[in-house]
Design a protein that fits this description.
alpha/beta, Rossmann fold, 2 domains, seven-stranded parallel sheet, 10 helices, 41% helix, 15% strand
Length: 288
């Protein structure tokens, strides 16, 4: 295997692909027959190469300059019982989570909720009813929360930008489409930094529940990976079948086994991802 010369592979180009595609489609036009739309992003081509990013030098350079970061795994817990929520939080933190997001709908006993938890070594976020002195990360005061799940990254980003003031964090819902999720976060980061000067805003992506509970672990894997490849600073992985340990370990494996946090712009050079990012950016600019 050490003697393989990759330079020996024959070079191909668009014309080579076009000839084969036309044969497969019996002379139909591949560019029109195989083009598609994803989540309101039209005119996605079946073929991309280096010529598609010639005019994207500024965007490409922007992502190349971004420093790599170690993203975090959070577990979201609905607080119905302080004692039960505390046990779940301790289990999650012991299982590899960097922090907990508590969803609180009523006044609670904070001492019971945080028993055995040291907020100085983990992140504690709270949503719903404000609980003073609990949060060390996200809360309603410092976080822009995407309240409604959007069907399009264009409307999601436009809504975030229109609502954004000087919050430190963004809590957004992920997309299940792998490449779309990557491009959506890249486009959001591009707007925040280059258009709004908000270089320090951190993005949290909440992986959405799959309509089929048995597919949730696959959704966590693909959407979770896409979220961090796009540049999310933290993610939370739900479970539809009650096994929170597996959901946590999906995040642990993605982070600890892949080491992708060691590299900046992991998807740079993917002509499709670069082009899709540019399409989303262009559509958002037209919308707002």
């Amino acid at each position: 295997m050490k003697d393989i010369q990759l330079s020996d592979f024959p070079k191909t180009n668009f014309d080579d692909w076009l000839n084969i595609a036309e044969k497969q489609l019996k002379k139909e036009d591949p560019l029109s027959e195989l083009a598609w739309e994803s989540h309101e992003i039209p005119n996605l081509n079946p073929y991309y190469d280096s010529t598609d990013i010639v005019e994207l030098a500024e965007q490409v350079h922007f992502f190349q300059k971004l420093a790599p970061h170690r993203w975090k795994i959070y577990e979201e817990i609905q607080v119905r019982s302080e004692k039960e929520a505390n046990l779940k939080a301790l289990e999650g933190l012991a299982g590899g989570c960097d922090g907990i997001i508590f969803s609180i709908s009523t006044d609670i006993d904070t001492k019971t909720l945080l028993k055995g938890i040291d907020p100085s070594i983990c992140d504690i976020s709270t949503f719903s009813i404000p609980q003073k002195g609990i949060s060390t990360r996200m809360d309603h005061d410092n976080t822009l929360v995407e309240e409604n799940t959007s069907s399009s990254p264009v409307s999601q980003i436009a809504g975030i930008l229109e609502s954004m003031a000087r919050q430190k964090y963004i809590y957004r819902n992920s997309f299940s489409d792998f490449f779309l999720e990557i491009a959506a976060i890249r486009a959001l980061r591009y707007f925040l930094a280059s258009e709004r000067g908000m270089n320090d805003v951190l993005i949290h992506s909440s992986i959405q529940l799959n309509s089929n509970p048995e597919y949730q672990w696959f959704t966590n894997t693909t959407a979770g990976l896409a979220s961090v490849l796009g540049g999310s600073h933290s993610i939370s992985l739900p479970t539809a079948m009650g096994d929170r340990r597996i959901s946590r370990n999906v995040g642990n494996i993605i982070r600890e086994e892949s080491k992708i946090e060691s590299y900046s712009d992991q998807c740079g050079g993917s002509y499709f991802v670069e082009s899709l990012t540019a399409k989303i950016v262009k559509s958002v600019k037209e919308l707002i």
